[in-house]
């Protein structure tokens, strides 16, 4: 609880410093909104034209997209600089964090925070739009709301674990931008859509090697299609817990091997 209170205090301080530049905040929010809207509109136009893709309707894809967007936005809002560890390793800016009387990861997670309002708002809109339509169709009821919140929470943990493990690889590789493009950016983009669209080898990679499929696809099979039973949701929770545990251990191992730049 003490660490949680300290984390929230540092987050508030970081957000206040970011809000000193209001125009930059508003401009970046609007630009991010436009990028994400254009990305989804391309998919929506295809689905509206053909009705569905391999049995997945527009509303189901909206749900997948919304869950992924919400999970990613929460992770990047409250642990932004985990994704940007490379610049700390290259410039030596990680050294001052080592001297603080708090865990290094906690200090890193509270640097340069900004709430991704545009992404969160769009994620909420997509979920409301899709869930209302699916409820009207009789495929969901109000019990889906707490399940969806649970799915978003586990998805956030999984994305954080993937990002943390990738960042920890930087203690050996230093330059990890290309690795992040694969483990975070490309995999998350792929997982916005049903994994059944992809060949089996890629499905396996997105479920085992980089478990982004458990962020939205696997629990959605249970929630929207009643496939696999409650075990699909329990399995997702287990994957989130194991992923976080392994990522934390990998981070501690990498941090123990860290060598300062000497600057």
What is this structure, in a nutshell?
36% of the residues are buried.
Outline the structure in words.
- The protein has 263 residues and is mainly α.
- A hairpin with a 2-residue loop joins strand 1 and strand 2 (56-57).
- The protein has one domain.
- It has helices at 2-18, 22-50, 58-78, 85-91, 94-98, 104-109, 117-136, 144-168, 170-173, 177-190, 200-209, 217-225, 231-256, and strands spanning 52-53, 56-57.
- It has a two-stranded antiparallel ribbon with strand order 1-2.
- It is built from 13 helices and two strands; from the N terminus they run ααββααααααααααα.
- The chain crosses the membrane at residues 21-50, 56-75, 115-135, 147-173, 201-224, 230-251.
- This is ABC-2 family transporter protein.
- Pfam families: ABC2_membrane_6.
- Keywords: Membrane, Transmembrane, Transmembrane helix.
Number of helices: 13
Distance between the termini: 35 Å
**Overall mean pLDDT:** 84
Shape call:
globular
Q: Considering DSSP H and I runs of 4 or more, what fraction of the residues is helical?
A: over 70%
User: What is the structural class?
Assistant: mainly alpha
Number of strands: 2
Secondary-structure element order, as H and E?
HHEEHHHHHHHHHHH
What fraction strand?
A: under 5%
Arrangement of strands in the largest sheet = 1-2
User: Which residues sit in consecutive blocks of at least 5 with pLDDT less than 50?
Assistant: none
Global Rg: 19 Å
Task: Please give the domain count.
Answer: 1
For the sheet with most strands, the description reads:
2 strands, antiparallel
